[in-house]
Specification:
The protein is an all-alpha fold. The protein is built from 15 helices and two strands. Strand 1 and strand 2 (413-416) form a beta hairpin. The radius of gyration is 26 Å and the shape is flat. The model has no long low-confidence stretch (mean pLDDT 88).
């Protein structure tokens, strides 16, 4: 009992120091939900849609309110942003040496402080978000624009947004533990959230640029649905696919089947598992992080150079593709762009690490490793050692074929059916 009361007291004290976050959250959510719904439903044109009973049909309810209260991409993106802000604000004291000394002088264990911040962050968002959505649904009910199905659909959106919040919070938590500066934390969050997505896009672009017989339209191996390292990217992509669901389909076939037709439910357990993994990593790093890391770009010096190599490879390849496209597929300019990306990336990353303009003159071996890796990857696509473009299938084993006309809009395929004999 004493331990529980002590935890609640710690939560209350933590809340007092973080009041700007819930106030900002409340202000935005009020305009996002109750105010927006009231503005839409106060339009006189909706009266023309009422049935004889004075109510509005369920299909019309979805038409008017789905973008505001139903499953949609924008709310989950905002939820991710609020998760990022919650982690940044909750653990911002780690970036200030005076605050670190002050917090660590209080007789509260690091474990309790960690979970107090995590719990408060989630409760602040969950309570305010739920209250604002319920208030908006109440306003809709006053306008006779409510049904049981749409209420359940709106509650599903709340659940999706809570997952999005946790995804943003968990990824930012790891970035915050690895860094000692708020700006660097934001950069780290972007790297953790988008690295796999960028690498997949780079592979796809290189395949399209170097292999004449490759078409992304027939290649599912690089589909965004196959993301597996970023809970933010996985979840936002999943919700964006679900958001295409039609209100009529939801009413006729039910929510579960409608979602399954638009996206894969496997994204949910995958995202939740990744959230747990990121939270666990963040907790371990929080326990191991030293007080002297406050104010530094990176909290753990041992990961600086490996991390730089990991970032330099996609940076250099991106620059190479940009120069290639600007020079009408010139290999020489792609190599030039690759070198420019390596040098520029090396200079920027080292200056961020050390906060010193002379930093690029140091740690050149890691630049050499990144150069070697980038060159090997570029040569793999340029030389085609696996013979992708040279492969010719056995005519007896061809089951179907198609003609791809690059000039046709949307890259449509013309199927070639086997002629009867």
């Amino acid at each position: 009992m004493t331990s529980r009361n002590s935890f609640l007291i710690s939560m209350r004290e933590n809340m007092k120091r973080r009041m700007w976050y819930p106030l900002l959250l409340l202000l935005i959510q009020i305009f996002e939900y109750p105010v927006a719904v009231a503005m839409v439903l106060s339009n006189n044109r909706i009266n023309d849609m009422r049935m004889a009973s004075g109510t509005v049909s369920e299909t019309r309810i979805f038409t008017y309110l789905n973008s505001l209260l139903g499953v949609s991409t924008l709310p989950v993106v905002l939820a991710v942003i609020f998760g990022v802000l919650a982690a940044l604000q909750g653990f911002s004291y780690l970036n200030n040496r005076k605050k670190v000394d002050l917090y660590h002088s209080v007789p509260v264990s690091k474990s309790r402080r960690f979970w107090v911040i995590v719990t408060n962050s989630f409760l602040m968002y969950a309570v305010i978000h739920l209250l604002c959505v319920l208030l908006a649904l109440g306003i809709a009910a006053l306008f006779h624009c409510m049904s049981g199905t749409f209420f359940a659909w709106a509650m599903l959106d709340v659940a999706f947004n809570l997952v999005g919040f946790l995804a943003g919070f968990a990824v930012t938590l790891v970035a915050a533990m690895l860094t000692g500066n708020t700006v660097v934390t934001l950069l780290g969050t972007a790297v953790l959230a988008g690295y796999e997505l960028l690498m997949r896009l780079l592979v796809q672009e290189h395949l399209s640029s170097f292999f004449n017989h490759y078409s992304y339209l027939s290649d599912n191996s690089l589909s965004l649905e196959k993301l597996w390292t970023s809970p933010i990217a996985i979840w936002v992509w999943f919700v964006s696919q679900v958001s295409w669901a039609d209100g009529r389909t939801v009413l006729d076939e039910g929510m579960y089947k409608t979602i399954a037709e638009n996206a894969s439910w496997s994204a949910l357990p995958k995202t939740l598992v990744l959230i747990v993994i990121f939270m666990a990593i963040g907790y371990v790093l929080y326990r191991k992080r030293g007080s002297e890391a406050a104010g530094k770009a990176m909290a753990f010096s041992g990961i600086k150079q490996p991390l730089k190599v990991i970032m330099l490879v996609p940076i250099s390849l991106t620059f190479g593709l940009v120069f290639r496209s600007l020079s009408y597929s010139s290999m020489a300019f792609e190599i030039f762009g690759l070198v420019v990306g390596l040098l520029l990336g090396h200079c920027i990353i080292e200056m961020i690490y050390e906060f010193d303009l002379k930093a690029p003159l140091r740690h050149l071996p890691s630049l050499g490793v990144a150069t070697l890796l980038s060159a090997v990857i570029l040569m793999f696509f340029a030389l085609d050692p696996l013979g992708y473009d040279r492969y010719v299938p056995n005519p007896d084993k061809v089951e179907y074929a198609g003609v791809y006309l690059e000039q046709m809009q949307h890259g449509d395929f013309v199927n070639l059916e086997e002629s009867p004999e």
